[in-house]
Amino acid sequence: MPMCLDLEGYNELSIEEIFDHAIFIAQYTSNLTTQMSEEFSDDLLKVMISISRAWYHPLEHLLHAVAALKGACETMLSKVKEVEKKNEELLEELKKILVRVHPGAEENVYPAWIGLAEVKSANEDTRHFALSNLFHCLRCDANKIATYLLVLRCRVIPNSNC
């Protein structure tokens, strides 16, 4: 290991030139990270739209499944109807945000739901387990969208008390 650092090339530049070069690199890097963040905001919106759109058909089937449950209370059924309605409203709001934040951006294709067979199963235990999983996934996705919206709001709207 050499005892002295090889300063060849550094002695030819003034300290001011070294600072200027370092500042240029720092600003360039900062601009790149801002661009990455903006691209991530675009992706984040697309993910939220995808998640919300992916619940369209499962919520329809959930509504029918809850209505068919023995002993299902009217409160649960009304909550499923409300979630279905609010999901449609949320999807429209997310689309408005996407158009405003990233004009011309295209939506992602949303995933297809594969749990219909279990929700329609003749076996009551299978149906109940499928509904339980559906409720769990719905809750997780709703929380995810709410969190993503808060993060995105902080990134898009300056001085938004985040």
TrEMBL record:
Subcellular localization: Secreted
Keywords in alphabetical order: Coiled coil, Hormone, Secreted
UniProt GO BP: female pregnancy; mammary gland development; positive regulation of cell population proliferation; positive regulation of lactation; positive regulation of receptor signaling pathway via JAK-STAT; response to nutrient levels
Coiled-coil residues: 73-100
Keyword Metal-binding: no
InterPro entries from the UniProt entry: 4_helix_cytokine-like_core (IPR009079), Somatotropin/Prolactin (IPR001400)
Top-rank taxon, per record: Eukaryota
Leader peptide range in chain numbering: none
Protein species of origin: Myodes glareolus
Protein name as catalogued: Prolactin
Location (main, coarse): secreted
